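Honest question from a wet-lab person: if I give you the sequences of every part of a complex, can you actually get the arrangement of the whole thing, not just the pieces? Trying it with mine:
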Amino acid sequence: MRALLIAILAAVPCAFGQSPTAKASAPVDLTGYWVAFVTEDWRFRMITPRKGDYQPVPMTPEARKIADAWDPAADEAAGNQCKSYGAGAIMRLAARFHITWQDDNTLRVESDAGMQTRLLHFNAAATSPGERTWQGYSSAQWEKPSSLKVTTNNLRAGYLRKNGVPYSENAAVTEYFDIAPIPGGGQVLLVTAIVDDPQNLRQPFTTSSQFKKEADGSKWDPQPCTAK
Amino acid sequence: MHRKIIFAAVFLCLPAFAQVELTGSWTPRNHEFLTGDGLPVDFTGIPLSEEGRIRALSYSESQLEMVEHQCQGWPVFYLVQGPFGLRIWSETDPLKGNVISYTIGGWEDRAPLTIWMDGRPHPSEYALHTRSGFTTGTWDGNTLVTYTTHMKAGFLRKTGAPSSDEAATTMRFYRHGDILTVLEIIEDPIYLAEPWILSRSFQLSATPQPPIGPPCVSAYEGSVGPTAPHYLPEKNPFVDEMTKKYGVPRDAAIGKPETLYPEYRKKLPPAAPAQ
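Yes, you can. This is the full assembly:
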């Protein structure tokens, strides 16, 4: 009898078109501390690549001109030291990320490097995008059976790489979050990111980054943005 | 009656578990550096064990002059590291209709990979090891999960980071629309200090990717002398090339595991001015 009651209660919201909250319907638990495991693009992520070292980003000639004029001192002076920490590049940072539920329909993703905060809105239609920011406005939805899809726009123009590889404010970022077990123990978070920006990219710039889950925040190390 | 209601509730509210189509041609999105720069000592991003590092630093590319090393080539995990696309096809049981196996076509330096989906076990540990190894697959929701063993010893990276014949690889194939992302976890109890995790994305393509590549054929290229070309410990002349060219510290260039985590950046010297 109890099973029958539970089943009916579970079915009622569906039957009447009401969705459970994103948190309640989450098919996978993304929350926790995640550390970037920098096995790819080491010299572009762990150190600031030298000016002109852009490979293998599919840049347009216009983007190359912009990158060739990269001036980190000028960026700092203008208060733009967070240009390489925007949503177009943030998940490629050598950083730790803390993912929590801000509310029942908003995932909060914080980075220690650059001390950035992303809000992934599951009820995006009800929210106004507001002004452009480094992290833009992100809409989120669960993809069956176990992925998270995030689309981001309303960005401030930023850098894909710390050495000035640009993306414009019209860029759109699509990301997929997937979790997998690591043989021998642990979990890995895979984030596939696709940056679409015809002004600066000959084709959508696609990267996939790996993060290992950590037991706690003991290695969390907030550091402000740097342009160099 | 109760059972029907419970079924209906579950059916309405839970995602349906379905597999996805993986067959077809997939072009690579080569926007990540997975194979290193091509400098002789670039093992950045590889968590080499001490034994792996010693062996890697002893490697001389002149070994490729030796007939027995010319086709040493690549184990299965080069599928994610290499620059090529994927051509995937399946074999179907003509009576039951289920997929017996998937095959990922080969390339010049990578053998075709057959993924057995029919539940057969992996062979004995003493069975033949081949370049493509032995691979089984299962579905985890919409994700194809494969496991490969029985690979011949080869390279983790073409400049000499070694893989042993005890290496095993788990791959997960995630399809999101027209993008296929392959997550690869390589275990090697001899040459890796911890599992090496890589990934690469591919774009669905209407242009066919080649299902095969030209086979590696050994050829005599002249005598290399009585010993295999190699470098003795502390004698590799290229160990500081990454430092000179890109400012990469030696510890990172030689694949020390601690260099793969963000906190290693605190050990780096201050960023040099833009050049």
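Two things worth pointing out. The two ends of chain B are 75 Å apart (CA to CA). The first strand of chain B starts at residue 24 and ends at 28.
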